[in-house]
Amino acid sequence: MHVVIVGCGRVGSALARELVESGQSVAIIDRKPEAFVRLGENFTGQVLAGIGFDREVLIAAGIERADAVAAVTSGDNSNILIARVARENFGIERVVARIYDPQRAAVYQRLGISTVATVSWTTERVLRRILPAGSAVEWVDPSAKVSLVERQIDPAAAGRKYSEIESAAGVRVVAVARLGAAALMTHDLVAQEGDLAYFAVNSDAVDGLNALLGKHSSHSH
Hints:
Number of strands: 11
Distance between the termini: 20 Å
Number of domains: 2
Radius of gyration: 18 Å
Helix content: 25-40%
Strand content: 25-35%
Shape: globular
Structural class: alpha/beta
CATH topology of the largest domain: Rossmann fold
Order of helices and strands: EHEEHEHEHEHEEHEEEH
């Protein structure tokens, strides 16, 4: 897959290195050429100096063939503008914007733009939204027997009660985030497309949960 990253600060550079190391194609944009020093001498991705929401710069970075875009500059306004251009002008579905203001983050979550807050969210969480479903686990207990995983509800699972999903997959739904607001699950809550559901699951049953939700199975760790 090809990923365009805008912003080569600590988060952007770490993201770019990890994606390249995992075999992905990466182009990273920053308005300051000196920022690319953070990538190290062995970085094999594409680097472009320029404004991240500039259409020509994005096209040069391969946005027309991109599978995902991560806007992780130091400014909320820039990140949202980049995210909207990627989503609305180029039709990119996997778009993540780093947002410092939690209230703003909730607003953009409602527009379908995944947002990550600075302090509590890290590179790993951005990667989880970019890489295919089932490729990451949020938390694993020290004995590696229980995992906490985040899954987005796709049309395949929408319309079912979460209590039914719990029974069928042998899991526990810990919480559900909908329209930017998270809440504990209630017995009658029905899954809606776009929900982010947090499941506690036996580590050996993650693939079964993925199958039930219509996700492609992948490695769990």
